């Protein structure tokens, strides 16, 4: 998942195309039920994984720290503006490629909100949302482990990954195992 995310990000950056990165960056004491505290502000896990740290220095990359599951909602500013909506408009994004963790939580919530906003006309000129399945993943909590942890639910990794992809497709996203640029086109036409 990380290798595919890195490959895609490099191909976008090589073509000087805009990239937006959402980082979970939660504040201690702010609940995100049903999940325990995770990706807390100031901890290493709230930063990019080492293979993607180079993105911080790329001029065409926008990094947004979010304090909720959904990158769309996590982009709302105190004044009501939305960093993601503004980014789509400023960069005239017509096709959005989505990668990340967790497929069935953060990715799915973002995709659903984005598609709803697009359908309501809030995300012009966005037309397509593509989820790259090989650049997404989720976590694993086996049944036996969930029984030992108070309040934990089983979360079979492979199944939940596919449930997230299914739900995204059901909402109108395109699911692709990989995303590449057409070799004869320098303008950035995607092959999915």
From TrEMBL:
Signal peptide: none annotated. Gene3D superfamilies: Isochorismatase-like (3.40.50.850). Residues 1-145 form the Isochorismatase-like domain. GO terms for molecular function: nicotinamidase activity. InterPro entries: Isochorismatase-like_dom, Isochorismatase-like_sf, NIC1. One of its GO terms (biological process) is pyridine nucleotide salvage. Belongs to the isochorismatase family. This is Isochorismatase-like domain-containing protein. It comes from Linum tenue. The lineage of its organism: Eukaryota, Viridiplantae, Streptophyta, Embryophyta, Tracheophyta.
